[in-house]
Amino acid sequence: MVKVVTDSCSDITPQLAQELGITVVPLYVQFGDETYRDNVDLSTKEFYHKLETSKIHPTTSTATPADFAEIFTKLAEETKEILTITLSEKFSATYAAALQGKTMVTKDCHIEVIDSKLVAGAQMLLVILAAKMAQTGANLEQIADWVRRAISRVHVRMSFDTLEYLRRGGRIGKAQAFLGSLLKVNPVLGIKDGATFPIARSRSRTQAMDLLVNFVRGFSQIEAVAIEDATTPDDLEALAGRLKDVVPPERIHRSNVSPVVGTHVGPHVLAVAVLEEE
């Protein structure tokens, strides 16, 4: 059976990883001299508490080629086919690290590495569906082909209280246009071609959620949806409640934004990703 690998920025929960046989390679988050493996040494809850209370702003770094090579080598003892789906190479060097790690594997194994051009819940949707295909017996070529075709059918909206975290981390992209506003707004961004871009300036958190809901309602055929928060579970619950009449609950995947992604989006992000049916 094909083994599916992804990085921790996909926000795959440990439970889901175990259920679907997904291997998650953690990235790293640093607070000064302290380094933690994403969602391994530092839980999501612990991270956001530290983010909001520490005087040190965290930084992040990718998994190393050796990290990937170690995982690939271990999995190659169980399978001849491995599919790896990474976050956008415009956000991180993880894709390059996975490619380099692939070259370090000496065992006979076919390893495909795909840049999802996405991150977080959007990336998660591709990983989940790929793992489910693997469980039904699809081969590496079939799954990789599906993932590559599906990337353009994943659409993202993210609501923020501030873009300061994106600015600090250098991941703000075209959303730079939203900086410097004198008004208190909740900016909403999307992801296209592997980078963020501005959508709207909402006047309130409620208005931003309305935009996320209407965004999902705008699709006539939906294969799956991912919704995420960082530190606002009540908002996530409200969003899920408003979507239950739009998307069957079994097609809605919930998660929390992991520490590495959270470093760049901040504690009050609320996001939705939609995978359109082909």
What does this structure look like?
The model is unreliable at 179-183 (pLDDT under 50). Helix 9 links the parallel strand 11 (222-229) and strand 12. This protein is globular. The chain has 10 helices and 13 strands. The chain folds into 2 domains: 3-151, Rossmann fold (3-Layer(aba) Sandwich), CATH 3.40.50.10170; 153-276, Hypothetical Protein Tm841, Chain: A,domain 3. The chain is an alpha/beta fold and 278 residues long.
Quick take:
The chain is α/β, with parallel strands linked by helices.
Compile the SSE list and pairings.
Layout: E1 3-7, H1 14-20, E2 22-25, E3 28-31, E4 34-37, H2 44-53, E5 59-61, H3 65-75, E6 81-86, H4 94-103, E7 110-115, H5 120-135, H6 140-150, E8 154-159, H7 164-169, E9 186-192, E10 195-202, H8 205-217, E11 222-229, H9 233-243, E12 252-256, H10 259-265, E13 270-276
Parallel strand pairs: 1-2, 1-6, 6-7, 11-12
Antiparallel strand pairs: 3-4, 3-5, 8-9, 8-13, 9-10, 11-13
Helix pairs in contact: 3-4, 5-6, 8-9
Low-confidence stretches are 179-183
| CATH fold assignment of the largest domain | Rossmann fold
Helix share bin: 25-40%
Shape: globular
Kindly give the count of domains.
2
SSE sequence, one letter per element: EHEEEHEHEHEHHEHEEHEHEHE
Strand content: 25-35%
Strand order of the largest sheet: 10-9-8-13-11-12
What value does the average pLDDT take? 92
Please report the total strand number as a whole number: 13
The CATH architecture of the largest domain can be given as 3-Layer(aba) Sandwich
Alpha plus pi helix count: 10
Measure the end-to-end span: 24 Å
Q: Give a quick account of the main beta sheet: strands, pairing sense, barrel closure.
A: 6 strands, mixed
User: What structural category arises from helix and sheet content?
Assistant: alpha/beta
The CATH C-level class name of the largest domain? Alpha Beta
What is the gyration radius calculated from CA atoms?
18 Å
